[in-house]
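> forwarded from #structure-qc
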């Protein structure tokens, strides 16, 4: 069984060159991504504004310690636009909130006294000066003057106000609280709508980018030369079009634009926190070095764990694909137990790698939560002292706790984004390795267009090797005239199939030249060359679909009537008409529900439907039953009529009427002539014919003896 030692290539977690190429695919959607970026700014804004609104409601309206109230000399000095309902008078003094004044009139307050209106021990008072704490006590001096004293001994002059006046003052707070509540609801709704449309937009962009990328990869693979496809397993190429592109969708939708959201959020929180209270902000940032160290350690161990799990997954996929493909052999030799043990070993490696990756993430996230708890502890310790000493407002303290929590959210999400980015870099590296590998067989700069080939084929001193100079064909020269039937025979590995592969330019020769109608095939456009050559292989490939689609291969120029005509012509209509649905009958993968003979008849119908100038039959009549062989033998003259036909056959009885038979041996032409001429030479062909004739004689005798034994057995039973 195969040993998988090749490890999957995984470069840096972030590669600038790869990222530039990935961004290049997003360039046609630049305006949509820009719109998504604007939406992210709005989403970030709604997230940042909610704690601030709560801070305003708490400090300015619920508690009132943060509201600026100024003492005006009289009502005449108050701007006319200020609502009288919110202007209060206490013992002849007039008070107005700063929030009621327009920005242009803020200069009016520069020389005005500042006061604090609040309840102290359930008594509404006006305190001269700014007081940020509610921990006050009222006292009355012998002269009857009232003062408010805080826990530090600071004493402020105070005036008791009527409760009805306090109620008037609080009406503004009630309205403001209601307005703030509505504003918070609106920001929540706006955030919801922006998030919804941003997710839809980014996913639409991501799906379109990957849709175009898949088309490019598929087209690139379809146009690649056979030598590249020989070197790369089908499963690997399928993975490029499916799994790797799916990984990029997550990168485009979750990382490319949303990364800006995290940046906006972190920068916005830093600015807001510094603006609210730089001292609390600096306390909050004390643990940033610890976050940086934890992130770097996570990056190191996560990349190592990711590499190992990707390699293990690749080995599981390879083993699984190999075992499913070879299931018949496994059952035939009863080695299910050994195959299970081999798979179990590889699966165990994947299991352990998965646990290691889980452990890395399981440590990182709780570590971030613990650092957040430490930051919250520092905030409560320092912030509560500030609140109690009157330095920090309660609303500011509350807002800071919210902002610290929001600050850690992008860092926690970084783990997931880092994993997506690693997968995207690895996938893009593999995809671009595929796309950067240019086909070796391409159209020449100056092509000779040929609409219809006549069918003259010439090989002139052709040398060809699949690998380096391990020559498969050595100085091969021959000419096939239009309309001739030429057969190639020889032992396995003599170079027969290589000749037909070279004719259709699936591979390019190293020396010599191949001409069709006197034109070097390297100067004929590939599409025109291959359109004029149809090959029927021994192992017929059928696509999933229906019968008629497999005959015309999605060529709209071939009508249903043409499909029926060619099928009837090659004797395929008899079995097709008996299928459920006839020509619309479903065909499973590789045509597994059809017999080998039926698949071969469909291949003949397919070849005739495209009306080629050159017909190639590569062991097309091998491994089929006698009845189907008779149908095929009847169809062959119809197929070959008016066409240059090349036949590769091991059964010499099928090529006796060929115009010429070319005998290949170890990549060289050893004999050439008609069937009778070659027999007369007493050479390689004569030896092959004698060997096959002897085998056919032995088989015939064995069948005759078996038939006789069967007859005698019947007579014995009757007697």
């Amino acid at each position: 069984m195969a040993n998988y030692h090749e490890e999957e290539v995984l470069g840096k977690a972030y590669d600038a060159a790869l990222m530039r190429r990935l961004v290049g695919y997003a360039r046609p959607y630049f305006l949509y991504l820009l719109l998504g970026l604007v939406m992210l700014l709005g989403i970030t804004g709604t997230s940042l504004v909610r704690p601030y609104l709560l801070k305003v409601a708490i400090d300015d309206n619920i508690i009132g310690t943060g509201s600026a109230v100024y003492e005006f000399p009289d009502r005449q000095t108050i701007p006319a636009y200020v609502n009288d309902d919110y202007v209060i008078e206490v013992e002849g003094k007039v008070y107005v909130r700063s929030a009621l004044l327009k920005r242009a009139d803020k200069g009016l307050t520069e020389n005005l006294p500042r006061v604090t209106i609040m309840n102290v021990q359930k008594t509404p008072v006006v305190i001269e000066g700014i007081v940020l704490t509610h921990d006050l006590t009222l006292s009355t001096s012998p002269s009857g003057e009232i003062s408010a004293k805080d826990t530090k001994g600071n004493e402020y002059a105070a005036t008791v106000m009527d409760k009805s006046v306090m109620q008037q003052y609080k009406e503004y707070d009630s309205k403001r609280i209601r307005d703030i509540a509505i504003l918070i609801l609106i920001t929540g709704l706006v955030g919801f709508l922006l998030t919804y449309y941003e997710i839809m937009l980014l996913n639409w962009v991501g799906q379109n980018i990957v849709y175009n990328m898949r088309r490019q990869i598929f087209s690139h693979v379809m146009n690649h030369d056979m030598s590249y496809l020989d070197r790369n397993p089908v499963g690997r190429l399928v993975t490029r079009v499916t799994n790797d592109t799916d990984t990029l969708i997550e990168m485009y939708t979750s990382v490319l634009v949303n990364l800006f959201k995290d940046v906006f959020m972190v920068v916005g929180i830093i600015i807001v926190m510094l603006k609210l209270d730089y001292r609390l902000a600096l306390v909050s940032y004390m643990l940033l070095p610890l976050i940086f160290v934890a992130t770097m350690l996570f990056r190191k161990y996560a990349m190592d764990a990711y590499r190992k799990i990707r390699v293990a997954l690749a080995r599981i996929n390879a083993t699984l694909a190999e075992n499913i493909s070879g299931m018949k052999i496994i059952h035939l030799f009863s080695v299910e137990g050994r195959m299970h043990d081999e798979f179990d070993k590889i699966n165990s490696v994947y299991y352990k790698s998965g646990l290691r990756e889980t452990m890395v993430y399981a440590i990182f996230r709780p570590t971030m939560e613990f650092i957040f708890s430490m930051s919250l502890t520092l905030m409560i310790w320092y912030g509560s002292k500030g609140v109690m000493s009157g330095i920090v407002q309660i609303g500011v303290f509350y807002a800071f706790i919210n902002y610290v929590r929001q600050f850690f959210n992008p860092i926690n999400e970084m783990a997931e984004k880092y994993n997506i980015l690693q997968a995207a870099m690895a996938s893009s590296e593999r995809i671009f390795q595929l796309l950067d590998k240019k086909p070796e067989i391409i159209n020449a700069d100056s092509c000779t267009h040929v609409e219809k080939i006549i069918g003259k084929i010439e090989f002139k001193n052709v040398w060809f090797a699949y690998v380096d100079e391990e020559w498969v064909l050595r100085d091969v020269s021959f000419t096939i005239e239009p309309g001739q039937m030429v057969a190639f025979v020889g032992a396995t590995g003599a170079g027969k199939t290589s000749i037909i592969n070279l004719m259709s330019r699936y591979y390019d020769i190293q020396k010599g030249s191949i001409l069709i109608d006197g034109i070097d095939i390297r100067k004929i456009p590939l599409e025109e060359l291959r359109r004029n050559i149809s090959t029927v292989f021994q192992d017929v490939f059928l696509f999933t679909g229906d019968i008629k689609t497999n005959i015309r291969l999605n060529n709209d120029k071939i009508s249903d009537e043409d499909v029926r005509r060619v099928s009837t012509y090659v004797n395929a209509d008899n079995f097709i008409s008996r299928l459920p649905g006839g020509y619309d009958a479903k065909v499973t993968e590789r045509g597994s529900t059809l017999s080998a003979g039926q698949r071969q008849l469909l291949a003949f119908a397919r070849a005739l439907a495209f009306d080629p100038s050159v017909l190639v039959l590569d062991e097309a009549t091998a491994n089929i039953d006698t009845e189907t062989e008779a149908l095929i033998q009847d169809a062959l003259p119809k197929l070959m009529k008016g066409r240059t036909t090349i036949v590769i056959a091991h059964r010499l009885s099928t090529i006796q009427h060929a115009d010429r038979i070319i005998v290949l041996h170890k990549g060289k032409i050893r004999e050439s002539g008609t069937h009778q001429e070659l027999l007369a030479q007493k050479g390689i062909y004569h030896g092959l014919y004698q060997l096959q004739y002897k085998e056919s004689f032995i088989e015939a005798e064995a069948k005759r003896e078996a038939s006789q034994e069967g007859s005698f057995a019947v007579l014995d039973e009757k007697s």
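QC bot note: Residues 66-170 form one domain. The longest strand covers residues 471-480.
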